[in-house]
Design goal:
The chain has one domain: TolB, C-terminal domain (Neuraminidase), CATH 2.120.10. The strands form 6 sheets. Strands 1-24-23-22 form a 4-stranded antiparallel sheet, with no helix packed on it. By secondary structure, the protein is mainly beta.
Length: about 325
């Protein structure tokens, strides 16, 4: 298999210091390739499996980290058009996506909704009756989840507003359902469009991304008990999208364009790599974890961290593609 094709075919003529070549052929010993396709991975609570999407508006898959056997979770759904898959603490799954593909704009916004998928073999997804925007946060300790809404999903919101909602998932009865919904934060305009990411500190706090004008973003956190909000990245004029939380909640992984300071190129979600940020509120403790953006047309994105802190999963991506699109899942060992 020629791994050069996906990247070199779309190499961009940057007037900067990026190198030609394919980052997949220059991996350090700490990184290994899990799959040559797929995107938006999520690690199981026991750190034994990784769920991921085969493609945008497609099927959800899962790979066993020991055997490397891949299984399809939704191939019994004709025309599956899901965008994300995430584990629940029970080993079941949350799916995100429309019930059918209409077009990219409508299917990613107005028709995007939450689904429950049982871990029992042969189960089919069940709608939770909740439209939402982008991704969701699922607790590693309980059946708590959070999601964001814009005016496309919540008609009571002003056209430029967005909000974060926290809910519990009730699976005790027949059909699963969301209960105890609570609006925890709202942005009045497009100066900050919201997306939920991760619970931490025993579900008392949550990270989220604030998407800002001109394609920029900040790492944010909210104390769900007091409502206090903190900007953790504190880097105006840059792109910092919060991703997987590290165990203990002291650090998080971030998609960041900080390397453009010396590599050159445009700011934003195109030129990103995976960084580690300390959640101490100073915004000064950033450590770079991947170097895919050192190569023309390459970037690393969508990292998630295991609950034992031993490894991270992320995806290979192209600078020219929309956020979330990936071309293979990689395993990053912090310690074996």
């Amino acid at each position: 298999m020629n791994l050069l094709i996906p990247f070199l075919a779309l190499a961009l003529p940057f007037a900067d210091s990026r190198k030609p070549g394919n980052p997949l052929e220059h991996l350090p010993p700490s990184i290994e390739i899990l799959t040559y396709f797929g995107e938006r991975a999520d690690i199981s609570p026991d750190n034994q499996r990784v769920a991921f999407m085969a493609k945008s508006f497609g099927d959800a898959m899962v790979i066993d980290l020991k055997t490397r056997i891949i299984q399809c979770l939704t191939c019994n759904v004709p025309g599956a058009a899901f965008l994300r898959v995430m584990h629940l603490v029970t080993g079941d799954y949350i799916l995100i996506g429309p019930d059918h593909f209409e077009n990219i704009r409508v299917s990613r916004t107005r028709d995007n909704e939450l689904w429950f998928l049982s871990k029992r073999r042969g189960s089919k997804p069940v709608k939770l009756g909740q439209r939402m925007s982008e991704g969701a946060a699922t607790s590693k300790q309980s059946l708590k989840l959070a999601f964001s809404q814009g005016a496309a999903q919540a008609p009571d919101l002003a056209p430029e507003a967005s909000r974060l909602v926290v809910s519990d998932l009730d699976v005790s009865g027949g059909a699963p359902k969301l209960i105890n919904k609570k609006r925890v934060y709202e942005s009045k305009d497009r100066s900050c469009m919201l997306e939920a990411q991760d619970f931490y500190d025993h579900d008392a706090k949550m990270t989220f991304t604030c998407y800002e004008p001109k394609g920029l973003a900040s790492v944010m956190g909210i104390d769900l008990q007091t409502g206090a909000v903190t900007n953790f990245s504190k880097a105006p004029g840059t792109y910092n999208e919060v991703e997987g939380i590290f165990p203990g909640g002291l650090f998080t992984s971030v998609e960041s364009d900080r390397q453009t300071e010396w590599l050159g190129g445009n700011r934003g979600s195109g030129n990103i790599d995976v960084w580690k940020l300390k959640l101490d509120g100073t915004g000064k403790d950033f450590v770079r974890l991947t170097s895919f953006n050192d190569y023309e047309g390459g970037k690393a994105s969508n990292p998630v961290v295991s609950t034992d802190g031993r490894f991270m999963i992320f995806q290979a991506a192209r600078t020219s593609d929309p956020a979330g699109v990936g071309y293979g899942i990689l395993l990053y060992w912090f310690k074996k």
